[in-house]
Amino acid sequence: MSVKGIEGKVIVITGASSGLGETSAHELTKAGAKVVVGARRVDKLRALVKEFGLPEESAVEVDVSKQEQVENLIQTALKLYGKIDVLMNNAGVATFSPIEAGDVDAWDRMIDTNVKGVLYGVNAVLPHFKERKSGQIINTCSVVGHSVMRNGVVYSSTKFAIRAISEGLRQELKPHNIRVLNISPGPTESEGLRVAFGEASMPTAPSTAFSDAVIYAVSQPENVDINEITFRPTALD
Ligand SMILES: NC(=O)c1ccc[n+]([C@@H]2O[C@H](COP(=O)([O-])OP(=O)(O)OC[C@H]3O[C@@H](n4cnc5c(N)ncnc54)[C@H](OP(=O)(O)O)[C@@H]3O)[C@@H](O)[C@H]2O)c1
User: Fold this and answer.
1) Which InterPro entries match (predicted)?
2) Is the pLDDT of residue 200 over 90?
3) What CATH superfamily is the domain 10-231?
């Protein structure tokens, strides 16, 4: 069922091959958006856009830690639709280990994906948003971007950085009529969560809690800028 304020919008989503990004791609499409989806596993993306009845070109292979590939994602969306209304910087990786384990490769991967990937996305879409004097940036933060999680020093650091980036963008981009949402999920059902925590059972929110929050923010009229949404499973502190 189409949703007022979503219908006809072009929404670029990074990290749409699984988890929160994939659910958002589904729910936003149902609500009437045209999504352009990016991730490294392009086969999964191709299957997704086929299911949505969207052009094959809406599935874009991208490693967000590579600036030129993020640029290509944005340019592909512009070539397809001539405009972008929303950029969802959602791709992210999480590895938890004590700092003294010195898992430097994982630190690099998290910083490159979770922080640089978001900055590259912003940089690539900004000229278009400024020209249109319109646009919305949605950054996926985390509750651990508000308080540090044990054994998650680097992951938490990347999400603290996202909060700083979102707030800084909100301030700087106001004159261009660009809206910025920082969304902070607690544990939410996804492939990524299962990989990070294995069989350890913990309460989780459904991934639609995330997409519902996105739909709420995107469907607001242009003069309403939703800046912060935090949610967590009811059963967790
Ligand atoms: N689920 C939770 O509990 C939770 C809580 C708080 C915040 N988050 C955040 O939510 C976001 C989505 O996570 P998720 O839980 O949905 O995990 P997920 O199921 O693992 O999804 C992560 C997505 O990011 C993509 N990705 C990873 N590295 C990438 C790269 N270098 N370039 C492009 N795409 C990349 C993955 O696709 P490919 O592997 O195909 O590239 C996948 O589509 C992340 O930013 C995560 O930090 C999740």
Assistant:
1) NAD(P)-bd_dom_sf, Sc_DH/Rdtase_CS, SDR_fam
2) no
3) NAD(P)-binding Rossmann-like Domain (3.40.50.720)
